[in-house]
Design goal:
The chain is mainly α. Helix content is 55%, strand content 0%. It has four helices and no strands.
Length: 66
């Protein structure tokens, strides 16, 4: 994932751990199945770094595309 994050920031100076955390949380929040999405309380805890962010599952649209 780190190599892909480099593409997002180009030469801007950012804390890579924070960027990775935001991207992972965003991916968790956009899951197709609503029950797979975290609650807003959990989102805040993940963004604060209080709880670990599990890697998001692959979107089903990518897996099922021809």
């Amino acid at each position: 994932m780190a190599g892909e994050l480099e593409k997002l920031v180009q030469e801007d100076e950012v804390e890579k751990t924070k960027l990775e955390r935001v991207v992972k949380v965003g991916l968790r929040c956009t899951q197709d199945e609503p029950s797979s999405r975290p609650s807003m309380k959990k989102v805040i805890l993940m963004l604060e770094g209080t709880v670990n962010i599990p890697d998001p599952p692959c979107p089903s649209s990518i897996i099922s595309s021809p």
